[in-house]
Amino acid sequence: MRRRLIAGNWKMNTHWNEALTLVAELVHTEAQENWADTDVAIFPPSLYSRHAIEFIQNAKSGIAVGVQNCASTENGAYTGELSASMIREIGAKAVLIGHSERREYFQETNETLLAKTKLALSAQLTPYFCCGELLQDRKSDQHKEVVTRQLSSTVLTLSKEDMLTTVIAYEPVWAIGTGETASPEQAQEMHALIRQLIADAFGREVADVVRILYGGSMKPDNADALLSQPDVDGGLIGGASLKAADFSAIIRA
Ligand code: 13P
Questions:
Q1: Where in 111-179 does DSSP place strands (E)?
Q2: What total of structural domains would you count in the chain?
Q3: Domain holding 113: CATH number?
Q4: Would you tell me the crossing angle of helices 220-227 and 184-202 to the nearest 10 degrees?
Q5: 176-206 pLDDT, tens per residue?
Q6: Which range of residues forms the domain containing residue 198?
Q7: Shortest CA distance to 41 belongs to which of 250, 253, 236, 238?
Q8: Which of 101, 108, 133, 171 is catalytic?
Q9: CA atoms within 13 A on the CB side of 196
Q10: How is residue 217 annotated by DSSP?
Q11: Which residues line ligand 1 at a C-beta cut-off of 6 Å?
């Protein structure tokens, strides 16, 4: 049985005080509500991660902290980059890889993303590997092919053990930050496809374990319908993760 996983990608949002407040509000809400059936993770800007981790540890909270990106190389002269092992050392548990914003604005290729995924795994970080089609791919009925290509040259080449610790996030680009969400049926169709690809590559037992999250304008009012789909194991939430009330409403959905 797959445990539900709700993760908040804060992107380049919040300033220091807002970040501290948001972490404190989430920890407070968690203490008041029963989140026992759900794993919760947040991905604040990496500058704030260490503080978030300490706060969460001191409060004995179960919220995991991840970062939004890591370098595709181990260490060395790469100004501005953070390596997977540095990220692990500060107590982070996970890293987002291949978010469509990274693919688009930072020209990240599948080759780079595979290198990042492998470094994350060897640093004992859980990679949240993102995939998803553009609006034009959906309109031209190419969405399945696009996502199949994104996964075939990356996570589907991993070892079985590594696949088992990887989380997949399906995020149709046309639904990110647009207020337009995939319908529950569209999400289910793509999640079932992704699970089938994993089954073809690694066998059904592996496919039954890997968690596949939906991301793209998930909000308190549409979370329940999306999360009740059999292959939707959770959500990767952008905008709605910046308000503790909205994020926790999704966790409760
Ligand atoms: P929104 O929830 O703001 O659409 O963002 C989704 C996303 O990109 C999460 O990684």
A1: 126-131, 167-170
A2: 1
A3: 3.20.20.70
A4: 40
A5: 989 889 999 999 999 999 999 999 999 999 9
A6: 4-252
A7: 236
A8: 171
A9: 9
A10: S
A11: 9, 99, 171, 176-177, 215-218, 236-240
